[in-house]
Amino acid sequence: MANKKKGTGVGMYIKEQYQFNKLEHVTKCSKNLESLFIEITNTNVPQIVGVVYRPPGGETELALKELESLLESLPQENVSITGDFNIDLLAGNDHNRSEFEQMIYSYNYVPLISLATHTKPGCQASLIDNILVNSTNSIISSGILKTKVSHHNPIFSVIKCQQKSSNNEISSLPKYDYCDKNTENFLHDLETSVYVKSNSVPMNQASIILLPN
Fold it and tell me: What is the pTM of this model?
């Protein structure tokens, strides 16, 4: 984009085991909002993952309209959107926060992060980074990493899904047992190593982790 300023841009790392298609119709770049979306196709239920960045120098009202246009174009389930929205969900009586929350809830999206993600000396902590999902039944965990990148705390969510496999691959694939005990042990390992659990439901600097069966 012409006259693009520093600090803008979105990207995504995708593990090589996943096959995906870039979704051009919801991959955009304007001075108000930037987005990149893919569809992971080799899971039994296709997963759509997007990353969004709202440059603080753009117009918030126009950014919200552009974001709403994206939400209208996406499926009604199995979508995860992460990024730096630069709208503080901890701000009390704030018009932008209210408009943002009303919009995402109206499209059945839930923010997974409820703790401050951005801290800077001399400034009040804010919640401007988040992961929005419209299918909470597949979310195993979500939260904030203790290690900070710049002034942002990295955020994550873990999604349970099943990866497709051909008949000749089945015998060589590892098997995973998602019983309650193993899931509890996995979450305990996260909480006692580098993760801080979020208070919300059950990488800008963000990760969406798919756990294949």
Answer: 0.78
